[in-house]
Give the backbone structure.
Amino acid sequence: MQSCHAKNYLIDDKRLWQDVRDYVAAFNPDLADRVEYYDADKEGLSLFERHHVHEQVHQALDRKVWLPSGGSLIIEGTEALTVVDVNTGKNVGKSNLEETVFHNNMEAAVEVAKQLRLRDIGGIIVIDFVDMEIRENRGKVVEALRDAVPSISLEVGPMETDEYRPLVEAGAEGLVVYQETYHREVYAAMHTSGPKRNFDWRLETPERAHAAGFRRLGIGALFGLSDWRRETLCLAMHAQYLLRHCWKSQLTISLPRPRPCAGEFEPLTDFNDRNLVQAICALRLFLPDAGIVLSTREPASLRDRLIPLGITMMSAGSHTEPGGYTGAGQDNLHYTERGRIRELVGNATESATHATGQFDIADEREPSTVAATLTRLGYEPVWKDWDPAILSN
C-alpha cells in the first residue's frame, strides 16, 4: 500500500494509530514516523474537515472540476474511454494569452493526474488541452502527465528534431502527422501560406520525429484531393521508406476520405467504396508489417466489412467539434469568416447552436459497441498495447 505520493498517514483514533504504528515499525521501521496521530480536540476540526475530504469526494463525482486559477476540466466517461476537455473559463490571466493558456494547461495536467487516481480511471484517455504556441510549454505539460498516463501520443504541427526531443524526453512516445496529399501542385493550392505550405518540410516530419525518439509514427493521405491510385502508390512508397529507415518506430497508415465538413469543402476527385477496398488490400499486401487505421468517417456497415481485410486500429466514439466529447464550449458560439470571429444571428437554426465539427462522423457507435462487433467477428479488442514497464530493467 506504500506509495511514493504518500508523505504521511493520519489516523484520528488513538488506539488504532498505536496499533498501525507498531505494525509498521515491526516491518519497516523507517516508515513508522509517517504514521501520525491526529487529535481532533486539539485541532478544533475533525480530520475530514481539516483536509477537505468531503469536498474531494464530491469533486470525484462531479463531471466539472474547477482549477485553482478559474479554468476547469470536463470529465466524461464511457464504458471504453474517458475524455477530459480543458477550458480556460474564468482564467483570464494577468499577462499575455500564451502564458495564461500554459498556466491553465499545467494546472489541468496536475489535476488530471490527481483525478485519474481519485476516480480509479484507466484504459484509453483523451485529453483536449488548449493549444499552445510556445513549443517548450508543450513539453512541460507532457512531463506533468508522464507519471499518471503510461502512454502519450500527440498530434502537433511539424517541428525540428531538436524541438521534438523535449517532448519525447518529457514522456510522449507517439506522433501522428498526415501529408494530406502527395501531389505537389494540389498541395500548393491547398496551403497557400503559413507553416504548412512547405511540402518537403511536412513530408520529412516522420523522419525527424523518429530521430527524436518517438516510438510510434502515423502517416496518411486525405483521399479525394488527387487521383486515388497515385495517392495510394505515393503513400505506400513513403511508408516503405519509413519502415526501412525509421525501423525503430512502429508505423500506422490512415486513408481518410473527405466528408461534409466546416466550410462546405467538396472533394476534388472521386474515391468510392470500391476504390477504398482496393487501396486497403493493396497496402496490406505490399506492407504486411504496417498498421492500417480506419476512422469513424466511414459508415458502420462498411467498417465492419473492412475489418477482415487487415485493419489493425479503429477509432470509435469520435467528435470533431471543439468540446464535442464533453459538451463544453457552448457558451460562446460563433463562426469565422476569413479568420475573423462573427457572432451568430438571432434566428440561428438549431444546428448552429453547437460548435462546428471539422467533418461529419459516419460511424457514431460507442466504443463498447465497436468492441463487441470485433469480438463477434472473431477478433480481440485491445485497448492498451504498451506500458513503459516493458523497457524497465
Observations:
- Residues 320-326, 334-341, 347-359 have pLDDT under 50 and may be disordered.
- The longest strand covers residues 81-87.
